[in-house]
Amino acid sequence: MRRVIFNKKGGVGKSTISCNLAAISASKGFKTLVIDLDTQGNSTHYLLGENAFRENQNATRKDNHLGLDKTLADFFNSTLGVSLFAKNAGDSLKESIHQTPFPNLDVLPSHPELEHQQSKLESRYKIFKLREALDKLGYYDHIYIDTPPALNFYTRSALIAADSCLIPFDCDDFSRQALYSLLETVEEIKQDHNAELTVEGIIVNQFQSRAKLPQRLVQELIDEGQPVMKAKLSPSVKIRESHSECQPLIHYAPKHKMTVEFMALFDELEG
Fold first, then answer.
1. CA distance 231 to 226
2. pLDDT at residue 235 greater than cutoff 90
3. Tell me, what DSSP letter sits at residue 63?
4. Which residue ranges form the domains of the chain, and what is each CATH number?
5. pTM
6. Residue 51: other Cβ atoms inside 10 A
């Protein structure tokens, strides 16, 4: 199963949701991969730690394979025919994967170079290369794709490569209006490029159960027939602490309320 966590808005928890669901998946024995398509590299930081992240962010193209040995930038370079280490895109994707400190959990790290590659990739219509490479990759039970806060080449590549889409939703009217645009985008990608793509669920994030507005907004979405997940994520400083320690919640605070909520969300997704 390949899931893309998608929202054009920043700060809605895409990286947090991607990494924590992936970490729970791995803890249950599933071979799991996180693909970090956001040039900010938050998922890369969260799963590989501060030192690897800093080396990656400070690397230049003069460095041998960009800091973390090989990254997604190398994979996309291979699709342009400039990779030095792979025979084809499928091989370069595999060689760009890094083990995390957590059993069964790997990551395809982001890199700032992705931003500079984008125009070349678009002009040469490499939008299907990620899907083709993942089709050849095999091995993983679950793949979670973290996307940038924009509808760009990388986000479209992720939606084309995925089986399903998860949309984080903050409980306010602005987020609700933006949600309809997101659903239209997914439908367009489905019709044009990926007939199997589904919106698996809308994940209610930063949910305050005692506040009237979040309750009303969520109920209205349910009444509309939107695929709102029953499991909801509360606001908590524990999330920021886990970011700082570079440990997903299942490892950092396995009995915390937020961990229980993420586990409930994972179980709901798995049926």
1. 14
2. yes
3. S
4. 2-270 (3.40.50.300)
5. 0.91
6. 9
